[in-house]
Structures are given as structure tokens and as C-alpha cells.
Amino acid sequence: MDIQEYMQNVGQAARQASREIARADTRQKNAALEAMASAIERDSEKLLAANRRDVEQAVAEGLAPAMVDRLTLNASTIASMAEGLRQIATLPDPVGEMDDFCYRPSGIQLGKMRVPLGVVGIIYEARPNVTADAAGLCLKSGNATILRGGSEAFHSNQAIAACVHEGLAAAGLPQTAVQVLETTDRAAVGALITMPEYVDVIVPRGGKGLIARISAEARVPVIKHLDGNCHSYVDEKADLAKALTVCDNAKTHRYGTCNTMETLLVHQAVAAEFLPQICAIYAAKGVEMRGDAATRAIVGADKVGAASEEDWFTEYAAAIIAIRVVDDLDSAIAHINHYGSHHTDAILTEDYSRARRFLREVDSSSVMVNASTRFADGFEYGLGAEIGISTDKIHARGPVGLEGLTSQKWVVLGDGQIRS
Amino acid sequence: MDIQEYMQNVGQAARQASREIARADTRQKNAALEAMASAIERDSEKLLAANRRDVEQAVAEGLAPAMVDRLTLNASTIASMAEGLRQIATLPDPVGEMDDFCYRPSGIQLGKMRVPLGVVGIIYEARPNVTADAAGLCLKSGNATILRGGSEAFHSNQAIAACVHEGLAAAGLPQTAVQVLETTDRAAVGALITMPEYVDVIVPRGGKGLIARISAEARVPVIKHLDGNCHSYVDEKADLAKALTVCDNAKTHRYGTCNTMETLLVHQAVAAEFLPQICAIYAAKGVEMRGDAATRAIVGADKVGAASEEDWFTEYAAAIIAIRVVDDLDSAIAHINHYGSHHTDAILTEDYSRARRFLREVDSSSVMVNASTRFADGFEYGLGAEIGISTDKIHARGPVGLEGLTSQKWVVLGDGQIRS
């Protein structure tokens, strides 16, 4: 069968399954999630064997060690997959939630009902745990899903898919509600993102290059996460002790995450007091510092390298930080809106009016006062789990959980009303 | 200046203005709306003169009478434009609304703030009143907008733009917050829908062909309205007197609107009683009827023509109706989900469980019980005004008002919290 025909069949089956999944009741969906978790636990040896095949091939082909690391499953990551599915079962079912009912002057009663999006396509790299996670989130939110993981994880993903299908069948749900593509042909991705008749939204999870390419070629809406170039701004009126703790945490808690602070902005009035203290912490932790002229003059050009224009735009995802002294709140906001990626930005201040202006005027998916940018994720926000973090403004912004995989339709309850 | 360069300049100016408009306060935005309305009233003679130029040319070029009709302004339509802007001023300002604040276990206080989308591009046909309406809605929702109206309305739109700009200036807001393209070059549309760096969303208002073309070529999210193939289903347990009134209204109140019923589905158990009555009403009003074999057998093949497969898919937007007898609720839901356009569909029934199933299982932007499909619009839903009706599931579904032109960002209020 040629790849276009294969994808047409997958799409049709997903559309068909989406109608059954949309009306599945909560108990049925939770039973499927529990059964998937049990199957994964029971089959852990099988999963490890399939994963070994993938890992051996990846090593032989010279895949980068960091990628091999993410590809590799062990007893603990398999237990986490099962645990993740059970946690999704405990989350409230968003489907069918009704809100905002009110009577209109015509006598109709108007409200909204939360409904699944339909068919969700997820494209991700060689991380087998995403297969279970994404399958669980889409099922609970009432969507059918088509999963396309990195080809390096092919055998691992097929083994996980078998457990997922067993769980669906055990709960009386169609196995086509979760389809893991049985091909590594790249043309399958091209087909998946250009079938608006079968796919309602695409969620790409992976590097910026992958996401940019998918966004450019998709004929289906994309919930995308580009970069996380996050800022902390230490205002003139900051409590410097708090600022020190928060700016330490925002940069050094974890270097590789998208909500890690990449640029520190400091008001000129407190720079001479604050910068030497925070830079001593960074230096002690081995963080490379790149600053503007004012920062280097205060901290020392031997300790802080020169930041280029490019640095202000950069998400390092590494133990590197850019530091700039700014004139005032306006300069800080202008810097963030210009160089930032509209992900997560924080102000450190005790000044009410400045905090209020920062929250309103910084155009980012999360804006914070006196808190570490590291809080911007689905777990900390209480979403239970996240399918990704959106840097878009349309549909969903910031961490996307079950609600982001749904939409709302209007409900009108009448008693024979007609329009006059 | 070449058209690409011109559009780059327009885009840059819009992005710049969007930041000012986003933080404009409610009073300022309302003052601008009032000043626009006053300018339109004061300049009504100028507007009529500009419009006469467009209309004369359109007539000379043989534009269809219905389109000339929509293009033509008169004293009353000009008064409506001004009145529409004043009504938008009375609507609550959605920007900055804060919701859902709660404390998380970490101690941060988490909530959401409603924010503008940024820059909205609107592409529409030769209806000058849309220029004022769209400008007003985008301004109130804190967005900058780029308007591209049909070339036949060029002079009318420029005259309205002058009033809009005067209103913005009077309130101290940048005139570039509303830009009406000063070109009729079609390449401008191609540029507008492929500038994601300057345009956040495109709202096309017009025929299905225009919208399909824009959706296919856009590199920017599109809030689109395709067809309105709406259904009423008269269930076995319907109150037939109510059903008669509602099905009459849904079809005959207005023929050309997108929320008009196009196909009537009737449960077999009540078909013999209900169909002759409703068909007598349609016949008396000159509605052409096309039915399946069962309908024709009941009502008479002389009164009801034969419906083809194509009829079930068709939005007539005319005094024509398709009629089908169905076996049961399941058949009705299956018909609607298969042939419909996911716009607005109603069930007529007194049966609780059937109403509940219809609401849940029909996948449309508005689902109704015992009410006319004609209620599906922004005014009847209390949105005050609508920028369009979305048949998409992503971002906004059904009538789109001020809220649909906004998004929500996350707000975190802390007191020095760090992530552990």
C-alpha cells in the first residue's frame, strides 16, 4: 500500500473513532487508562526488549548520547508511564462540562458545553514515554489521536501501542482511537499535517526546527511551542533578598527547561548593590555570564563576558546567562517584548503600580510577580499533565492540559421559541 | 513602492500600534468610538459622494444587482454605522479581565488575564459598513487591525477610514491602529495572510470560495466561517404544535442567512401527522420542497420533488428545503454529523434523554432543543456584535464577539516563591 493511501485509511479510521470516543463516558475512559497502565506493567520485559532493539540500532548509527538517553527505557521510566496514565484517570473529565447558562430576553436559555476537538495529531521525537502520555491525555479529553514518534523509537512505540490498544479494547472502546503510525516514512508526516478533513489539530513536540517546518507546511491548525527565552527583571523597588533567591532559582534550578530564565534585567538604581551578589552565586555554580557594558563595569570584565545583540535573542538551554542593566520599567518591558519569545517573564518588585503595569504590558503566556519563572508548567499550574506549552495566542496559551484539547459549543434550551 | 514593501510597512506599523492599543484604557477606547461615530454622522454627505463613485463604477462594470445593493450606502445605513460604533462603546471591555485566581500548593497565586490577540487582519467583500464595524470591534478588544475590503468599495472605505482615523486621533490613539489598505492590488491579500511576524489572526468575511482560498494559502491562523447547512430534527416525542412554529420560523424567517434551516428531518412515527402540516405552510410561502421517497409518499410527489444525495449537503440560502424521514434519533444524529456543516442544529422533542443525547452527540457550534436555528447569532447570544461566526473548533466556535478577539495569559502572583 502506498503511503498516501495508508494515511488516508488512518485518517478515516481516526475520524470514525473520534465520534465514539467523544461520547464515551468517564468511567469507560478511566477503565481504559487503568487497563493500559496494567498492561504496561505486565509487559515491562517486552517493552524493555523492544527498546533494546531501538537503542542498539541508535548507538550503532551514532545517535548523540543525549538522544540515546531520552530514547532509553528502564524499569523506573516504565513505572512512570503507568503511573502517568493512572494520574490522568484521576483528573476531572472535561468533556460535557456545562457553563455560563443564562436566560436571554428572547426566552432561550443559553450556555456552553465543553467538547473534544476531534482528531489530534501528535508529532514527536524519539521519546517513547510521550506515546503513553499523549495517548492518555487525548483519550481522557475525548479525542482520537494519531501518534508519530521519532523513527529511532519505532519498536518501543509499537510495543507501547500494543498495551494502549489492549486497554482500549478492555474498556469496549475502538482501538483506532489511538493509532501509532506503523511506518517510519517521512512522507507520513507530510500527509498527516495536510489532511484537514481527518485531523483537527497538530501538536508538534520537539526541537524548534521541527516545529517551524511543520508550522510552515501544515494545512491543519498547529498548537506550537517555539522557544522559551524567559526574563527576570529586578526592579528598583525589589526586595533584593527575595530577588536573589528567585533569580538564583530561575536560572540554576534546571538549565535545559523552557521556563528557565535566560536574561536577567536589573534596574540601574539597584545594579551596583544587586549584581555583585547574584553574579557571585552564578560564578560559584559555574554559570557563564554575558553582560552589557554597565554590568561588566560593575561586576568586572574578567568575570562577565561581552553580550552581543544575538545574546538577547538566545534561549541558551545551558549554564549561560545574559545580563543587562536597564534605565527603568519601560526599558525592561520594551526589552522583553522585543527580544523575548512571549513565554514566561517575571518582575521582582514591592511596588504595586509597577507590578500591575508589568502584568498588563508584558505580552507573554505567563507573567509573574516575585516568583521564579520555573513555575510555568502544567504540573505547577494544577493542570495535572500537559501535552505541551503553547507560545501561540490562538486557542491555547502557555501550558496546555486536557482543557486545551477541547473546545466549547453553544447550547440553547428552548420551549418553542422563534425569532421575530 | 512595490506591494510587498508597502505591506511590510503596513504590518510593521500595525505591530507597533498593537502595543499601544493593548494598553489603552477603556475610557480612551470608548472616546475614540464616540468620536468615530460623530465624524461619520458629520461627514455623511462626503461618505455618500464617495459611495456614489463606487456604485456608478460598479454598475458600469455590470456588478450583480445583489452586490450593488450591499455596496450602496444611504442615510439610514450611515446612521446604523454610527449607532453600531456607539453600541460597541457600551459593551464591557474584555481586556484585562482577571479570572480563576487560586492558591497553588507552592504558595503562588495563579489566575488568568484576558489580553488582545495583537494584530487582526480582516478580508471582506464590497460591504462598506463592515469597515466601521470591524474597526470598532478590534479597537474595543485592544487589537490593531488591517482591513482589506472589496475593491468595488474602495472610495467608500477610504472615506470611512478618514472618520475612523479622526476618532483615534481625538482620543490620543495611533491612527495606525486601524489601517484600511490603500490599494486594490490582489497581491496585498497574499502578503497579508503570509506575515505571521506582523499578523496574529485573519478573519475572512465573504463567500465560501474566498474563505477556502484564504485558508489554503494562509500562514497565519484563520477564524473561518464556511457554510451553514443547518438542520431541525422533529423527534417522535416532539410537541408537534411547537415543532410546526419552530420549523416554520427556522426556514422562512429569512432565507439568505447562515443559520437558516436547510434540511428538515422527521421521525418516521410522526411523519404522517407532521409532514402534511408543515409542507402546507412551506407551500403557501412558496418554498420549493425536495424530499426522500418516504416524504414524497406522504405529502405527494406532485408537491415535493426528489432530493438527490447532493441536496443533503447543500446550503441553499434560498426558498428551498430538503426533507427526509428518519428511523430514529441515531439516524438523525448520523445524518447531521455526516451531511451537515457543524454550524447549528436543533432537536424538537419533549423527551429528556433524547434531548440530552442530541446536545452531546451532535458536533456543531450551536446545538438547540425546541428553538429556532435562527437564534444562532451574536446579537441573540448577547455578544453585542459579532465579527463573524466560526465553523472551526480551534480558538472560537460559533458567533465570535469581542471575547473571540482576545486570548488569556497566565498570571502568577508570588512573594519570593521558588521551585524546589
Automatic annotation (TrEMBL), chains A, B:
It catalyses: L-glutamate 5-semialdehyde + phosphate + NADP(+) = L-glutamyl 5-phosphate + NADPH + H(+). Residues 8-281 form the Aldehyde dehydrogenase domain. Pathway: Amino-acid biosynthesis; L-proline biosynthesis; L-glutamate 5-semialdehyde from L-glutamate: step 2/2. Its EC number is 1.2.1.41. Its main location: cytoplasm. One of its GO terms (biological process) is L-proline biosynthetic process. InterPro entries: Ald_DH/histidinol_DH, Ald_DH_C, Ald_DH_N, Aldehyde_DH_dom, G-glutamylP_reductase_CS, Glu-5-SA_DH, GPR_dom. GO terms for molecular function: glutamate-5-semialdehyde dehydrogenase activity; NADP binding. CDD domains: ALDH_F18-19_ProA-GPR. GO terms for cellular component: cytoplasm. It is an enzyme of class 1 (oxidoreductase). It is found in: Cytoplasm. Pfam families: Aldedh. Transmembrane segments: none annotated. Keywords: Amino-acid biosynthesis, Cytoplasm, NADP, Oxidoreductase, Proline biosynthesis. Belongs to the gamma-glutamyl phosphate reductase family. Catalyzes the NADPH-dependent reduction of L-glutamate 5-phosphate into L-glutamate 5-semialdehyde and phosphate. The product spontaneously undergoes cyclization to form 1-pyrroline-5-carboxylate. This is Gamma-glutamyl phosphate reductase. The gene is proA.
